[in-house]
Amino acid sequence: MKPNNKVLIFTYYWPPSGGSGVQRWMYFAKYLKKLGWEPVVITVHEQQASYPVCDDSLLDEVTDIRVIKTATREPLRWYSMITSGNTKKGMPQGEVKRSGIFGKIATYIRGNYFIPDARKGWVPFAVKTAQKLLKEELISHLITTGPPHSTHLVGLQLKAQFDLNWWVDFRDPWTEVFYNKDLYRSQKAIQKDASLENKVLQTADGVLTTVGGELHNQLSVKVPNQNFVSIPNGYDAQLMQEVKATKPMEVFHVVYTGLLTQNQAYDSVLHALNNLSNKQAIRFSLAGNIAPEIISFIRAALPKVEVVYQGYLPHKEAIGLMKSAHLLLNFIFMTAQTQMISGKLLEYMATHVPILSIGDPDSEAGKFIEQGTAAKMLDAKDVKGIYVFIEQIAKQKESLQNDFPQLERWSREGLTRRLVQEVFNR
To answer: Residue 237, by phi and psi: left (phi above 0), alpha (psi -120 to 50) or beta?
Structure first.
């Protein structure tokens, strides 16, 4: 193996961490190995990490990947204990909870003292481990992926000490991420965060994102001469082929998987399902990290619908649930319409099940979804359009298939080939 075929990857999330954040570089590492590269992953030891969810099944995907685990010292563990009673639960995902005096105080602490984030205590441990490794081995390529964006501070220090081709991966935006506006940040905190981001963007050899368009435009204003590459998360073709599922014919099966919060607009869909339930038997299955109060709200809004909440499912089981659906639902985070295309959408497409996504039809995600033969992105205010689309899918549930042009381009292996070509062989 040539020394310059080694890729050093820093990622906080790694199996047994669950959720979507871990899967991007888990799969990149898996297929880099298959394509003749040698990924070396530095991550946090799971006994000290703050993971919202765990998924031991993902360990099977990375059995032959070299992984080095470090200690960490995180203020997040104490924040998490105070706010949830659990040191490992971490921050609420996809929303900022500001209810009550205590919630407001906790939010202020989060926004003004955890800069860029509450996992920054990992940085010195990661740097020390990498320094030893880089002195012993010749490694040319470096990847840091965030969130947590404090991971990029590791790359900043290593780039100053070693000859590395360093690319930063923004799975989500940094200073422009949609929930920052809710953190009661002082001007000093905002400036400090922006300064760190600018230093990272200016020092890195390139910036990798899951979506281009407006996000690249925002970033290029800060660093006009930077290299920007957009590669989405994709779907694993091998897993998609392995998982078999049967659709229930006695009911219209609607499925939602993933994170669901109060920062997503699902009222119009619930209204449509409730109306349709007067003439159609419906089962609504949900899986993922969803608060009990949201599940209770959904049950109350759908008195005639069979609502089944399955909790967080291992990835393979989640794929099985998706493939058992007649209709898959997706809700874009409000005010985040231009910032991301979730990996879940690519997996949705790969199931060939019809899709209804609620968000901006003119966004990059909206234009992407519309390529499907039975897929729509509709505005939450389009109540009639939402009902008509769902009713059409229900009427054709036994025969309708959602086909997507050149789907193989979006496989995890295909996207890893793009990564090699556009980043490592640049």
So the answer is: alpha
Task: Please give the model's pTM, rounded to 2 decimal places.
Answer: 0.89
Which residues, including other chains, have CB under 8 Å from residue 19's CB and lie 6 or more apart? 13, 51, 52, 53, 55, 93, 259, 289
Across 371-386, average pLDDT: 96
**pLDDT at residue 2, rounded to an integer:** 45
Name the residue type at position 413: E
Q: What is the model's pLDDT at position 17?
A: 95
pLDDT tens string 199-246:
999 999 999 999 888 889 899 999 999 999 999 999 999 999 999 999
Query: Average pLDDT for residues 186-190, to the nearest whole number?
Result: 88
Beta strands in 293-414 (DSSP E): 306-309, 327-331, 355-358, 375-378
The DSSP call for residue 8 is E
For residue 271, the model assigns a pLDDT of 98
Do 236 and 57 form a contact (C-beta atoms < 8 A)?
no
Domain tally, the chain:
2
- 418 and 391 inside one domain: no
Q: Do residues 179 and 213 both lie within one domain? A: yes
- Please give the Cα distance from 183 to 188 (Å, whole number): 13
268 and 207, same domain (yes or no): no
Does one domain contain both 396 and 417? no
What's the rounded Cα separation, in Å, for the pair 117 and 164? 25
Task: Find, among 301, 280, 284, the residue nearest to 394 by Cα.
Answer: 280
Contact 68, 62 (CB under 8 A): no
Q: What is the CA radius of gyration of the chain?
A: 22
Assign 60 to helix, strand or coil.
helix
| Two structure tokens written together for 179 | 């929930």
Cα 155 to chain center, whole Å? Answer: 21
